[in-house]
Queue: 3 jobs
Job 1
Amino acid sequence: MKHILRMTAVAAALTLGTTAALAEPPAERALRNYELLRSGAKGLHDLSDAERRELAALAQLMREGKSVDRRTPRQRCVDEEVAREGKKPSELAMRVIDLKCRER
């Protein structure tokens, strides 16, 4: 149970982001910032609070040897809905899934 709560907290931290940066998934932004920090192109002082939280969550996942889910929230929704179908969804089912996941 404790592990599930920790993973939920890490996932929540990775999904935090500013409205202006919604086009880039938080995991992608964290990976980009990680590379910029490693190369010296950016310093920690250059990152916003949200970016530092995303980077901390990424570091936690890396320490635990877990991979980072680079899918957008919409793509995660589509993947979950398709899996819930249990078989290849029909065209109509895919349209419903698209509508359901559109706002994510």
Note: Residues 71-104 form one domain.
Job 2
Amino acid sequence: MDSELIDTEVVDDQAGLISIVKELSNSDIYAIDTEFHREKTYFAKLALIQLRWSDRLVIIDPLNLDLSVLSKIFHSNSVAVFHAGSQDLEILHRAAGAVPRSVFDTQIAAGFLGMRTPSLSSLHENLLGVKLTKGDRLTNWLQRPLKESQLQYAASDVRYLLELHQVLTERLIKLKRYDWAEAEFVTFLEKRQKLIDPKDAWQRIKEAKHLNKQARGVAQALAEWRELAAQKNDIPNRYIMSDLALVGIAQRKPTKLSDLKNIRGFDYAQYQKEKGQHLLKIVEKGLKADPVPSLKSRKKSLPPEMRPAITLLSAWLAQFATDQNIDPALLGSRSDIEDLLRGESDSRLQVGWRHEEVGEQVDNLLQGKSSLSFENGRLVIESRGTHA
């Protein structure tokens, strides 16, 4: 059936949702997307779930529904088709207590066809010749009632997603890259965005890696407190305290209230009496804690003489990706290269399709059996012959 002719249905009652789950449980594949907001909350607020399968396109209004029933679909063998679905997976897991067991992400799949992090609209235009409307992209999805134009915009995110899946699958199979994409989908599921452990929250603070041992302990204690407070109050952690203020306190290591004055980014007026004393106790806890390992020392440091190898391999991998029409970001990042040079067993370049495609060439370059030359605007690998 022509996707353009499929009517958009809205379901906002539990009985309707259960009926959808029952029907979808018998489907081999379905398209799914979400609309949400998280600007002023810690946890994303789910506003809509869009579903397309067979000859149906349904928008679920989840505000007053028990979404745990969706887990029946997610635990089935049905393939869920997303576009750039990392945040969708996080939100669905919180809302339904589960995520799909099997996924196909059109953005990842397109990367194996040479498209670099394509938008949904660019995929529609380039692969289907369909132009998506941009009408209500920045709408408030939590408002009710939603206008018809808003509902149709939301529906457009999944209306042709199954057609995109078909085109991408056919091209991947023709190029013998479907297995590559499938392996990446598994990794994508394993690395989906998860709730951060408050004890590890300090690692996301950019300036934390420059702190000394004692200051790192304070930063860890403060970041853990901030994360827990943000979760409890469901507000962004920056509303509790900015990164700048947190690092400033960690560096100063205050022991009395007056030490909290004039710390950049810190609202001293808000931390008087009991609130200020509580903050000092958190600092004291951080000072007494076991030394926190430096973020830099978590992995073996790379010898200085290996630094040029990073540049060398980065250049060649980028050339290889271009020649093979693969998104370079899929093939290997700088971090992947550093893991390889450090001898990390879990380096992405050491396993799977990546190793099959570039493993031997990379090994030859690192062992001096091959060299790179620049010919006609391209990097070319040249064998140095057999060494005695």
Note: Strands lie at 8-11, 29-37, 45-53, 56-60, 79-82, 102-105, 370-375, 378-383.
Job 3
Amino acid sequence: MPDTLLPIPTTDHFSVVRLTRAWYVVALSSELGSKPLGRTLLGVPLVLFRDSEGQASALLDRCAHRNVPLTEGRVVGDRLECGYHGWQFDGGGACRKIPGLCADRSGEQPGQSVPCYATREQDGLIWVYGEADERPATEPYALPVVGEEGYTTVRRVVEVEASLHATLENALDVPHTAFLHRGLFRGSGVTNTIRAVVTRTRDSVQAEYLDEPRPTGVAARLLAPGGGTVTHFDRFLMPSIAQVEYRLGHSSHFLVTSCCTPVHDFRTRIHAVISFKLGLPGWLVRPILTPIAMQIFRQDARVLRLQSDAVRRFGGERFSSTEIDVLGQQIWRLLRREEKGHEVQDEDWRREIVLEV
């Protein structure tokens, strides 16, 4: 069946999708200690805090009393206390104490609660559901291989001035690596013709690259010191996960999972979890791999900022795509379909393309 794409907007439009009924990573577990932590999700200011048992909660960062940010308060036992008048809220947003008021605060009072956001903590990450006062029907994405024997995991957080869609496409775009990351990953001047099998489901799209020799560059030599043919997958998982996976035999496995969180329409925070098992000891590879990975992230952040600057300068976006833009339009289709509430009915879809890298 031929594929009918939902087009990416052209001139005078912006490819911004806002999906609130979804889980997003807002912080590393290590970032949330004994003090309130402020974060912004989809343009909404949130405050995170831990109760006396270490349970994480997320509330709207605005006191129901006089609109003061709750991030300016403190944690008292199981409650978050506003720094202005001392109103205290539990992890569900209910007001439990108003100093000086004799009335009972044992339950929620109308108009005196703060919107609450479902929160989960797993794999060293804190996830928040984007719709307030809602019980999600799904759970956050479980990161593969984290904590498994033989794997080393590195976590890094970067922010980019780009929309969620642009950030996701960049993370999974193979052709740019030979130019923007020349010398670090591909770009030696030698090209190879490979096949990509693209498969789309209702909530994901994946490109499997077949018969791909080990890419050139410093990072690729760490991935596969002995050379050879790699197994390479790029995946998008709704609504915000970009995943790149390389395997070489049974001994070498490299997996980057980027959890992309829309802070604002044109600002995205990336929680990158890099897990690897290589022929060399993890303690030896980590100090070499980490600065290379951060250099790649910085290059991507710079070009995404330039892209966003140009979009704003010209008052909109204009795209021209070819078949080697393997995943960008498919990501856009899935995001837009979800935003429209599944008005567009998709069937599973598969095709094969040939490209040079």
Note: The chain has five helices and 19 strands.
